[in-house]
Design brief:
Chain lengths: ~525, ~500
């Protein structure tokens, strides 16, 4: 297979959106069309899974390198390695399921055509971010995601949609504006480590190879800081997380699912693909801060969950906590931790995406997500109740399900962070994170107890609208449930793909200094540690 | 008698490169034609004038294209008139912007029962001033070009003469404009006194001696820059803009906010990059303050506006701030600053003209430019809503729409300076982009997510000329963003006229 496949998988949804704009305004036609387009992208994704050279998972594959904006040396550079492959697979899998779900769940005020077109554009933005190997191209795709999401929340959202959509947009734009400044500084400062000449390139491969060589430490710290805010808002990390509960609560179900399953990963992916490999020295310096904010996020998110009365808002806060585990894994700067983080990203995408689907279906049936008013789901809609139970168990990290392999290794990796990082501090983080898992069990089981168990409350006792899982819901949910089990039983399926790429990204700085560890040692020595 | 004169005056006619001045002459000829048509045909000529004006602008593109294909830099009148790549790019921009303004005006002027022949005649002469400005490398040429473009614009602003607001608009614009001209002229006289020449290249030589500048040079440079700060509506010299924009006929507002502003910038670029380039210790701090203050104040005041045209006026102040920003580091980055500002001007022209086209289209139904009147637009005019979203979010700088590339170039230039002041200015741009997004996105929200006021959802009939204007501006806005080389491939170094040429 040739390199056209990356271009194809990225732009098929956009092409579909453009064609859809020209099609007559027939809802059924548009539903079929959107599903068909996303299935083509899914097919291409499957083809990529088969064609991927797993022995070379650390290397970029199907590389495309064409000129794009010559004046600034930005290219149309695409490539996929083991780090991005699982995330692309996740994206192309989630989208058809979301379109399938849309068959009978177009949120008010309707206008199916626009809703589906926006989601197709969103898909292009998300896939593009994962395949881009040029900082400017990455930035453009990263931002393309904003507009469709903004409109999805603003037009099809809940009662408070205007506030939530603006907040989402402003927060992320603020982050990405600072991130762009960081990219530019990197462009102007990065030098070739051998010849000492300025590189003047946005090519992510070259910038990864130089690993920040020749950039003054103070500049490195500032550049990393700019990117940190950009990616941190997207993750979202404490204290930049406040847009997330609002956005999730107000977004239509499809929006929440996409947000949880894929969009949040753009931030964490930025950390492991750009920030850390390109500026390892600054990463060492920032790692304790990232770790601290991560564990604050874990505890804060969990406590936030315990205080919520709205089911969707609770799941949103649990996202803050889960992404805290992912960030903790990343902050250790170890192979082990970052692998755990990628697994955590995929697992969180499947599990939390599934939870939002359930929340959407509960809302359809009960017309409320007020936890205090719900109850007895296991009696009225037993299968829905059991799916909620199953997904909650996965979310709290029950061994044997996917959530476990995201959380447990992340905590474990904090026991032994990369050389040069303060071991005691990270062990402290580890203990706090472990407490976080207990809290997670607390709020999820409490949620389950209040909504699924007991007798159905009077107001819903004989409500004919409360039916069990419909066939359409089965079709769109089963892949999620199966994968949660599959990855729980065979985590190697992901770890084996990601590991070589992670090792490669951490080893790139080996060529010049004494590797990341050497940099860290030098830093510690300089700081008198 | 004639023979006597010829003997008495020893006048050597300067060599004229007819090809180089062909665009100006073409415009002049067509402007005269429009006037003559009015005199000869009276009422019968009225219907034709807008077509003649648009043909004039298109025909003028021909010599621009041939000059560009020729590729040779042309210098005339001892360096006072220069045709280089930069001048051609700006001339082409003025012509295209002028063409779009004619498209915007066609129905507005005809249906409003205003004087058509004079309107298009004045419009053409104003554009002629702009086209001339792009080539001006001499204080007197700059001044003549400036007055040639401004005086018709004063009259155009007050075209709705039975409307008090329009009179206010024209009068304010006129008084402020004349005041600015006076300050600038005083500054120019000081510079001429110091340099002994009106050629910008000579002035550069005279002012850029090493060491601290003399007081005369400082005052001269500052006064000239302030004069143009009025023209580009930079804070704190922007106060005329909101009132003038609101009161003037909307097509004229579009013209002022894009073409007139761009002409001010062109003059500023000519002066800074040819005339004062060696005196960065004088102009850079001034421009830095103008840039930072314009973007911040413009954006903050725009947040509070309830009228879309006034909001666009303040957003225009902020956009002027972005365009000034690279000039504040011009000595460090050189041509990168020039390129950044030129790129911004081109992209800004497309997206801002587009936004005004939508205001015109919607006002045909609502007879209002209040932001509230745009609510629920998606319900009855989805096409206009999508186009307006493109323009607004492009102004906000969201990829993949053109505005991102313009902002990117600005940020690139200020970061490239690798100085603290540059980085701080970069952070100003970044933070201001977020503030600006708030008011742009709020309009987007109103259009997409709210109900139409009074539940009035009769569709809008958009005339063909407006549709073409929208198609041109929207296509350019998107194309610039998706494939930036379109707006950045040409090499826009400024030819120093007498010096470099």
């Amino acid at each position: 297979m040739d390199s056209w496949i990356l271009t194809a998988v990225t732009f098929v949804p956009l092409l579909g959106a453009v064609i859809a704009m020209a099609m007559p305004n027939d809802d059924e036609l548009h539903k079929r069309w959107a599903l068909a387009v996303s299935l083509v992208a899914f097919g291409l994704g499957i083809a990529m899974l088969f064609d991927f050279n797993y022995d070379q998972a650390g290397q970029l594959q199907w590389v495309v390198d064409e000129p794009w904006i010559d004046v600034i040396g930005a290219g149309y550079t695409l490539g996929v390695d083991g780090m991005s492959l699982p995330l692309i697979a996740l994206t192309v899998l989630v989208m058809p399921l979301v379109f399938l779900y849309s068959w009978s769940h177009i949120p008010s005020p309707g206008n199916t055509k626009s809703f589906l077109i926006l989601m197709l554009i969103l898909e292009t933005g998300m896939i593009g971010t994962f395949v881009a190997q040029d900082l400017i191209l990455f930035f453009v795709f990263f931002e393309v995601v904003l507009l469709p999401m903004f409109f999805m929340i603003a037009v099809w959202g809940g009662d408070d949609r205007r506030y939530a959509s603006l907040k989402f947009f402003l927060y992320t734009l603020f982050g990405s504006a600072l991130m762009l400044l960081g990219f530019l500084a990197l462009f102007f400062l990065a030098k070739d480590p051998v010849t000492g000449e300025f590189l003047r390139t946005f090519d992510m491969r070259e910038l990864t190879d130089t690993a920040g060589a020749g950039i003054a430490r103070s500049s490195q710290l500032l550049i990393f800081g700019g990117m940190f805010i950009g990616f941190g808002v997207k993750v979202p990390m404490f204290p930049f997380h406040t847009w997330l509960p609002d956005a999730h609560t107000q977004a239509p179900t499809q929006g929440s699912v996409i947000l949880a399953a894929v969009l949040l990963k753009l931030g964490t992916y930025g950390f492991i693909r750009i920030s850390i490999p390109m500026l390892p020295e600054a990463a060492e310096a920032w790692a304790p801060v990232i770790g601290l904010l991560a564990v604050i996020g874990i505890i804060y998110g969990a406590l936030g969950c315990l205080a919520q009365t709205d089911m969707k808002r609770l799941i949103a806060f649990s996202s803050v906590a889960h992404m805290g585990f992912v960030m903790l894994g990343i902050s250790t700067l170890t192979d082990f931790g970052i692998n755990a983080a990628i697994f955590g990203m995929v697992a969180h995408g499947l599990i939390t995406g599934m939870l939002f689907f359930i929340a959407g279906s509960v809302k359809d049936r009960y017309h409320t997500l007020e936890i205090g008013r719900l109850g007895g789901m296991l009696i009225q809609a037993p299968r829905l109740g059991w799916i909620l139970g199953f997904t909650s168990m996965a979310s709290l990290g029950l061994p044997g399900l996917a959530g476990f392999w995201g959380e447990f290794p992340a905590i474990l990796s904090a026991y032994q962070p990369a050389n040069g990082l303060p071991v005691e501090t990270f062990r402290g983080y580890m203990v706090v994170a472990a407490v976080g898992t207990v809290l997670a069990a607390g709020y999820l089981l409490w949620l389950l107890q209040r909504t699924a168990m007991g007798e159905p409350p009077e107001e819903f006792a004989n409500d004919p609208e409360i039916v069990d899982v419909t066939p359409l819901e089965w079709v769109s949910w089963t892949p999620f449930l199966l994968l949660i089990v599959l990855f729980g039983v065979a985590p190697g399926l992901i770890f084996e793909v990601t590991d070589p790429a992670v090792v490669e990204s951490l080893n790139n700085c080996l060529q010049f200094e004494n590797g990341c560890d050497g940099v860290a040692d030098a830093t510690t020595a300089a700081l008198g540690g | 008698m004639l023979a006597l004169l010829a003997q008495e005056v020893d006048f050597v006619r300067p060599a004229i490169d007819w090809h180089a001045v062909a665009p100006e002459l073409t415009l002049l000829a067509f402007g005269a034609l429009v006037t003559v048509m009015d005199i000869v045909w009276l009422e019968r000529g009225r219907r034709l004038t807008s077509s003649v004006a648009s043909i004039a602008l298109l025909v003028t593109m021909i010599p621009i294209v041939t000059l560009a294909l020729d590729g040779e830099d042309r210098v005339m009148f001892g360096g006072a008139f220069v045709v280089d790549n930069y001048a051609l790019v700006m001339k082409a921009m003025f012509l295209v912007a002028g063409y779009v303004v004619v498209l915007l005006s066609t129905n507005y002027v005809a249906e409003g029962d205003y004087w058509e022949s004079e309107y298009y005649g004045l419009l053409l002469s104003s554009i002629l001033g702009m086209v001339l400005m792009a080539s001006a490398r001499d204080l007197i040429t700059v001044f003549v070009a400036l007055e040639l473009l401004s005086i018709p614009a004063y009259m155009l602003a007050t075209w709705r003469k039975r409307d008090l607001k329009s009179n206010e608009a024209g009068l304010k614009y006129y008084l402020m404009g004349v005041f600015a001209s006076a300050i600038m002229l005083y500054g120019m006289s000081l510079l001429y006194g110091g340099a002994g020449s009106t050629l910008l290249a000579d002035i550069n030589e005279a002012v850029s001696v090493d060491g601290s500048p003399s007081a005369i040079v400082v005052v001269g440079v500052i006064f000239v820059i302030i004069g143009f700060a009025f023209k580009v509506s930079a804070f704190p010299f922007h106060t005329w803009a909101p009132d003038t924009y609101e009161g003037a006929p909307t097509p004229v507002t579009a013209f002022l906010s894009v073409a007139s502003k761009a002409a001010g910038f062109v003059a500023l670029l000519n002066l800074l990059f040819v005339g004062f380039f060696g005196r960065d210790d004088v102009y850079e701090p001034l421009i830095w303050i103008l840039a930072a203050a314009s973007m911040t104040v413009g954006n903050l005041v725009a947040l509070r506006q309830t009228n879309l045209v006034r909001m666009l006026a303040y957003s225009g102040v902020a956009q002027a701030g972005y365009m000034l920003a690279p000039l504040a580091v011009a000595s460090d980055v050189g041509d990168a600053a020039l390129t950044a500002t030129v790129t911004y001007l081109l992209v800004y022209a497309a997206m801002n003209l587009g936004a005004f086209a939508i205001v015109l289209a919607v006002a045909r139904k609502t007879r209002s430019a209040e932001i509230d009147s745009f609510k629920g637009l998606f319900g009855y005019a989805p096409g206009l809503t999508i186009a307006m979203s493109v323009f607004l979010f492009s102004l906000a700088g969201i990829p993949p729409l053109g505005g991102w590339w313009a902002k990117f170039r600005v940020m690139e230039a200020v970061i490239e300076a690798e100085s603290a002041s540059g980085v701080v200015l970069g952070v100003f741009v970044a933070v201001n982009s977020v503030i600006a997004l708030y008011y742009y996105a709020r309009i987007g929200l109103g259009m997409w997510a709210e109900d139409a006021p009074n539940g009035d959802t009769t569709p809008i009939r958009v005339p063909a000329s407006l549709v073409s204007a929208l198609a041109i501006t929207a296509a350019l806005t998107i194309a610039f963003g998706v494939y930036p080389p379109l707006v950045s491939e040409f090499d826009v170094t400024l030819l120093a006229g007498g010096l470099g040429g």
